[in-house]
Design brief:
- One of its GO terms (molecular function) is dioxygenase activity.
- It is a single chain.
- It is built from four helices and 15 strands.
- By secondary structure, the protein is α+β, with helices and mostly antiparallel strands.
- It has a single domain, classed as Jelly Rolls, CATH 2.60.120.590.
- The protein is 19% helix and 35% strand.
- Strands 1-2-13-10-15-8-5 form a seven-stranded antiparallel sheet. Strands 9-14-11-12 form a four-stranded antiparallel sheet.
């Protein structure tokens, strides 16, 4: 029954919209097709994930990240950023299912996923690009969102003539970044000025040994 439902979902018309960013390849899907409602996915991930409150080193100083994180993946696929090394936890059944359907939809292979939990309006992510050598020269990163809507900002690394791009990441949406995106653009999430509920974000990646 579940397989039949998945076949029907992926036989339907799934349309990505291109995000207007020069020197980048970013596309957006309002609703990622999956046979579980968004709230159930959020609750299951929230409860099952082994969350960590990691420290990062910025300009020589150690800080607790303004969000919770978790790293899951294939054996040996550790991830290093900001002098923090994350070792993969074994895939849960739900994460494996999300990975499988992403790979079927996008025809891209992933071997790891970084989960971020934004607990409220004060949690955020500083501007950065996912350009670590372990991700390869032109990484494809698929970002799933569940829970409260947050705004992802894109800023070009060099060209001041290009305005900051704002993308609303609604619950159940999928953002795909490919090609030269990480080479040319930084992205981040600011604090919210209004009270905001929790949001879960999953960024599926392929770590190259």
């Amino acid at each position: 029954m579940e397989k039949d439902l998945m076949d029907d979902l992926f036989a339907s018309d799934v349309r990505f919209s291109k995000i207007d960013l020069e020197e980048a390849d970013v596309s957006f899907l309002v609703k990622f097709p999956f046979p579980m409602n968004d709230q159930s996915i959020f609750e299951k991930l929230y409860k099952e994930t082994i969350w960590q409150h990691e420290k990062v080193v910025v300009w020589g100083k150690s800080h607790l990240q303004p969000r919770l994180t978790a790293w899951y993946g294939d054996p040996g696929r550790s991830y290093t950023y900001s002098n923090t090394v994350m070792y993969p936890l074994p895939w849960t059944n739900l994460l494996l299912s999300l990975r499988r359907e992403l790979e079927n939809l996008l025809e891209i292979n992933f071997n790891s996923v970084l989960l971020n939990l934004y607990r409220n309006q004060d949690d955020r992510m500083g501007f950065h690009s996912d350009n670590e050598p372990s991700l390869g020269p032109e990484p494809a990163i698929a970002s799933l969102s569940y829970g409260a809507t947050r705004t992802l900002l894109f800023k070009h690394k060099r060209r001041r003539d290009l305005p900051t791009k704002h993308v609303k990441l609604t619950s159940g949406s999928l953002l795909l970044m490919k090609g030269d995106t990480q080479r040319n653009w930084n992205h981040g999430i600011n604090k919210e000025t209004q009270i905001c509920g929790p949001r879960l974000n999953l960024t599926f990646r392929n770590i190259v040994k």
